[in-house]
Amino acid sequence: MFLSTFEKQLDGKRRIVLPQDYRATLSGPGDGLFVFPSIRSKCIEGGGQALFDRYAKMADDLEFGDDLRDSIERNVFGKMQQLQFDPAGRITLPEAFCNRFGMKDWVAVVGLRDRFEIWERDDYLALEQPDLEFAKTGLANMRNAQRLAKLGGAG
To answer: What pTM does this model have?
Structure first.
């Protein structure tokens, strides 16, 4: 499981050390570390075999030749890279990904349970407050909808 948020500095070779808990999660039998440019946010998305399988299932649920399936496959699997840890526990972020998201110095590594995101630190810091407000509003709306459903729509 990938939890918490960490700030990490990229070295001159675009390497970072992932937290020990992340490395332990990714070191299971048959597991690997997969990263690709997120299709939802301005960041790198990463995870292990479970994340790979989730996107594969999402694509497989669509008919072969479906435009959405093709787009998911091109934008996830077509850009995905499998990374290895060096002996010091570092990964080297792909240069193209770093260039795309302006990652030159500090990054934020954000755990999202079964996956994680790597953001350019200032982009992530700029997102925090609006994201918190979005979550608060969304949670309040969800709770209100649940209350209405419990009451049979009366209210």
So the answer is: 0.91
**Domain locations along the chain:** 5-121
CA-CA-CA-CA torsion for 126, 127, 133, 137, nearest 10 degrees?
Answer: 160
The four Cα atoms 127, 39, 49, 99 give a dihedral, to 10 degrees, of: -70
- CATH 3.30.1120.10 correct for 5-121: no
- Residue 81's CB is within 10 A of a number of other CB atoms, namely 15
Task: Quickly count helices (H) and strands (E) in the chain.
Answer: 5, 8
Question: Are 37 and 100 in contact, with CB atoms under 8 Å apart?
Answer: yes
pLDDT tens, position by position, 85-134: 998 889 999 999 999 999 999 999 999 999 999 999 999 999 999 999 99
